[in-house]
Amino acid sequence: MASPKTVPKDAQVMIQILKDMGITEYEPRVINQMLEFTYRYVTTIIEDAKIYATHAKKNNVDADDIRLAIQSRMDQSFTSPPPRDFLLEVARQKNQTPLPLIKPYTGPRLPPDRYCLTAPNYRLKSIQKKMSSSAGRITVPRLSVGAVSSRSSTPTFGTPSVQSVTTKVGTPMSLSGQRFTVQIPSSQTAASKSSTPSTPTVQNVLINPSLIGSKNILITTNMVSQNLASESLKRKHEDDDYDAL
Amino acid sequence: MAAVQDGQHNLEVEKDIKTEITNDGSGNINANSSSPGSTSSGGKSKSPAGSGEDQQTLLAVLQFLKRNKLTESVDILRREAGLSADADDSPVSESAGAGSGGVPNVGADGGDANSLLSRVSIATPVAPPATAPPKVVAASGGEDQPDVNVVLSAYSQQGDPVMYPLYYNGLKKFIESVLDCHRAELSQVFYPLFVHMYLELVYNNHENEAKQFFEKFSGDQECYYEEDLRILSSMSKKEHMKGNETMLDFRTSKFVLRISRDSYQLLKRHLQERQNNQIWNIIQEHLYIDIFDGMPRSKSQIDAMSGSLAGEGKRDANKAKVFYGLLKEPEIEVPLDDEDEEAENEEGKPKKKKPKKDSMGSKSKKQDPNAPQQARIPLPELKDSDKLDKIMNMKEATKKIRLGPDNLPSICFYSFLNAYQGLTAVDFTDDSSLIAGGFADSTVRVWSVTPKKLRRVKSAADLSNIDKESDDVLERIMDEKTASESKILYGHSGPVYGISFSPDRNYLLSSSEDGTVRLWSLQTFTCLVGYKGHNYPVWDTQFSPYGYYFISGGHDRVARLWATDHYQPLRMFAGHLADITCTRFHPNANYVATGSADRTIRLWDVLTGNCVRILTGHKGPIHSLAFSPNGKFMASGATDSRVLLWDVGHGLMVGELKGHTDTIYALKFSRDGEILASGSMDNTVKLWDTLKAFDDVELDDFTAATGHIHLPENSQELLLGTYMTKSTPVIHLHFTRRNLLLAAGAYNP
């Protein structure tokens, strides 16, 4: 903490400003914040002014450039609320319409769904059916989450909440709420770290071993997925995805 | 000078007389008719000199008269001034044309004519600008803000800047020499005059003179204007004025003064006798003098009512009828029960000042004349769950403790620990079972006060597994596994400044610095809707007492009324000159009170959106409002550490409670209105006796008409108790249904 004698000049200016505006109690970091703001603001303005000056093919930055820079920044960062007469006019118009009647017995009274935040904000992706390039790959029919076919054979599935499916090349999907066991045939890469033996009744899912490297995932499904041709896997397995509801 | 002028111009005299008569009416007409009168007289007296400026002035006046079809006066003026018939056309026509609508700034020197006309046209009521500014004179240059310049152009050069201190001094000497009884009233003129003169000097780029003027006279002003003066002192250039919305609003809205007729006559006579009309001009333009007949007010009376940014409220602003009674409670079928029947009898009773638990014999079916019609504003009908709630409410109300000066409530204080000054808003549910806190880290946290934990509804997957026919299905839909004492709601992107539970405990509202108001469900503890409308921090929000509607007020000086199922506001309440810091519904949900940083409280009618009351008297931004349960009275607390009591029906101040030493952030009336609790930043909760405070109010005709009440200095007698906390500012108060007082604040060592 700098003693008063060695406080830099700019900081002293800030202290004086606070005193002039009648502010007597403030945390010491306020001075730093003011200095930072000043520095950032001034550099932004001067940089903008330089741009305007070069645009006008002038060698030096002069007062007009600075004025223009300040004006444009004001409209951008430091907006002020609309003027009073405008507000009065808008209010007058709005207040003329009568209050709408309330429909009875409508359950929760919320705006149309478009204006609410109640829609799901994610969609589940599917594993795309892809022609394999190498012989050893096993191709996979499209995995659709929540498709009846998958559900019927795996009673352990929880009900997925989204029916829509997108395809993405080569990427196994994130199936929230579903449990899978994966068995990676040993003929695949050596990188696989987890190979859990699957139950014989369940078919295998091929997952990119690099994906598995990070987590130990238990996956059971009818489908088989292939991907090894991939492309880095964008999807991130989170354990949360597989939590039971 | 006046006498000389009157001799020459009959019209002048006529106008003057008209001014006198219309003084009680709208001051706007006052300004309108007399300002060309006085300026034209000024111009006329110099016309023999024939300078270009005066010629312009004359021409401008001629145009004005022509436009208002005062043909006779046009002829007279032309004859006297020796103008030819065609001399007055084109040079002035453009400027006149520009002056009729909005006048962009033509520069301080050019166009006294413009300025004159602009002053005249601005003096017309501040109602929304009727027309877009007409085509602008080419010389005006590219001003991109015609509104601002219309407003500011009124400040164009009126007099020699060096003379301003002299004018002011002269007025000061005059006022000091009048009789005592008039002096207090006339001293009201000092502050607005000072501000307007200073702003004129600044606007015309006389920075040095402005600074000197400020230094010389700012010390004379009232102490409660200190904050404003400080802000004023930071504005020393024209550009500073443009950026400051509050100052612009101060300029457009006329500063209202209430002066008795005798004092006003004195002032007027004095100013008109003097050579310079400078001060008189300013008074005409910028001040609205609300004249009343009667005794001049004393200094203490004036001090009680003044302090707001725009002077006091006009008398006719507070004349609209306000339905302050409560709505009739609907009939609810209750099982026959002595207790319940007695409670039910209470519902149909007309408004009463002291609602009594023991009911009067018969249920009165008459409509309370002071209560609004049941269907005045549409209200949601009661669902079964609401009816059950009401029955619970009534049962608990029977166990309510009667409070009084000899029976003070117990206070239970909820301290938020480890909040690090981040607690910005608190609310309790009506049945006191949940607390919600809004924090500066943009989270909202909900706690359960009772041992019952917070449960959310199960997800869709689990819900399909439960037995829907079972009796306790409402319990089964709740998820036991995630039950907890508190839940955290994320969603806002700025500190949460306002928070409000819905009466049916299904929803929670929160308003934040990010400009949105969010509706959260307390069944699923997720965010349902974000209401966007304010683009600036929203300082306060509240659900209506019947649910469904809510209000929000913020930095954009507008309060909005929303309904939960409309994504846009239903009503906009515009009129305040500075941020709205506090918004409250009246118990009958037909009126909304807003307290603002411009130190006024306005009461708005929900049905029409009109402002029906303007209450001035606080000397600092208002941070808390409370309505009494019977709807007749209101209490307000501000940064000036006073609590003011208001009679809503008459729009008068009926009490002043002094005692706190810091901003009052929490106010609450007890369930029957007998006690008012106030919590403040000075770490205390104080209890006040409201029965006594409202009993003492005497209203005779004079006070009702003029609004001047002698406030008794009885704060000490009304104070029933002071309770200190351990360095915890009190930011919320709540009376439970049994009249136990709950308080909340963040521990701040």
Automatic annotation (TrEMBL), chain A:
UniProt keyword Nucleus, yes or no? yes
What is the annotated localization of this protein?
A: Nucleus
- An example molecular function term from Gene Ontology annotations: translation initiation factor activity
Annotated region (Disordered), positions in chain: 149-169
* Single biological process term from Gene Ontology: RNA polymerase II preinitiation complex assembly
Question: Which keywords, in A-to-Z order, does the entry hold?
Answer: Initiation factor, Nucleus, Protein biosynthesis, Transcription, Transcription regulation
Report if keyword Zinc is assigned.
Answer: no
Q: Which InterPro entries match?
A: Histone-fold, TFIID-31, TFIID_subunit_9
Q: Which GO terms describe its cellular component?
A: SAGA complex; transcription factor TFIID complex
Q: Which family does it belong to?
A: Belongs to the TAF9 family.
Entries under PANTHER family matching the protein: TAF9 RNA POLYMERASE II, TATA BOX-BINDING PROTEIN (TBP)-ASSOCIATED FACTOR, TATA-BOX BINDING PROTEIN ASSOCIATED FACTOR 9
Specify the protein name: Transcription initiation factor TFIID subunit 9
Q: What is the lineage of its organism?
A: Eukaryota, Metazoa, Chordata, Craniata, Vertebrata
Automatic annotation (TrEMBL), chain B:
What's the domain of life for this entry?
Eukaryota
Q: Bias category Acidic residues: which stretches?
A: 334-345
GO function terms (MF aspect): RNA polymerase II general transcription initiation factor activity
Q: Name one Pfam family in it.
A: WD40
List the SUPFAM superfamilies hit by this protein, alphabetically.
Taf5 N-terminal domain-like, WD40 repeat-like
**SMART domains (UniProt xref):** WD40
Return the InterPro entries for the record: LisH, TFIID_NTD2, TFIID_NTD2_sf, WD40/YVTN_repeat-like_dom_sf, WD40_PAC1, WD40_repeat_CS, WD40_repeat_dom_sf, WD40_rpt
Query: What's a single GO BP term from this record?
Result: transcription initiation at RNA polymerase II promoter
Which residue intervals are annotated with compositional bias (Gly residues) in the record?
98-110
Which cellular component terms (GO) are annotated to the entry? transcription factor TFIID complex
* Record-annotated TFIID subunit TAF5 NTD2 domain positions: 159-287
Q: Which UniProt keywords apply?
A: Nucleus, Repeat, Transcription, Transcription regulation, WD repeat
Q: What is its main location?
A: nucleus
Q: Which compartment or compartments is the protein found in? A: Nucleus
What are the WD repeat spans here?
Answer: 416-457, 489-524, 531-572, 573-614, 615-648, 657-689
Residue segments, region Disordered: 1-54, 85-110, 334-388
Compositional bias of kind Low complexity: 30-52
Extent of Basic and acidic residues compositional bias: 9-21, 357-368
State the similarity comment.
Belongs to the WD repeat TAF5 family.
Among PANTHER family, the record links this protein to: TRANSCRIPTION INITIATION FACTOR TFIID, TRANSCRIPTION INITIATION FACTOR TFIID SUBUNIT 5
Q: Per its record, how is this protein called by name?
A: Transcription initiation factor TFIID subunit 5
What taxonomic classification does the UniProt entry list for its organism? Eukaryota, Metazoa, Chordata, Craniata, Vertebrata
